[in-house]
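Figure 3 (text version): structure tokens given as input.
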């Protein structure tokens, strides 16, 4: 990554890596991260059309209000061609070197000790 992430970004990265530890062994492999990201995309693509866009907005008013800022954040990070939609390809290309950046000792897994600290 070219610029240092801010504290909020560091916290989100750490949270994502912990959630991606799908087998709960305290280590996240690249395969677990890929699977976790695919699951996240599927949850966000509510209408299953292969893109995350306004059509995925929930129907309930309260959920709609929460969706808008979250969708804007997802677009700002992942919508590389700025068309208002996030495809699976854009989602997967968002930061391909994040795993390598976090795997400080190069052993193929990211442990909690390797996760960034917002200090």
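Below: residues designed for each position.
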């Amino acid at each position: 990554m070219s610029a240092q992430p801010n504290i909020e970004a560091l916290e989100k990265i750490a949270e994502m890596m912990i959630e991606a530890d799908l087998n709960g062994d305290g280590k996240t492999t690249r395969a677990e991260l890929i699977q976790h990201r695919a699951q996240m995309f599927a949850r966000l693509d509510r209408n299953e059309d292969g893109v995350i866009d306004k059509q995925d907005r929930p129907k309930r008013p309260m959920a709609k209000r929460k969706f808008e800022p979250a969708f804007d954040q997802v677009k700002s990070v992942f919508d590389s061609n700025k068309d208002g939609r996030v495809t699976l390809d854009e989602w997967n290309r968002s930061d391909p070197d994040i795993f390598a950046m976090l795997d400080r000792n190069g052993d193929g897994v990211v442990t909690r000790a390797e996760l960034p600290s917002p200090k």
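The two ends are 19 Å apart (CA to CA).
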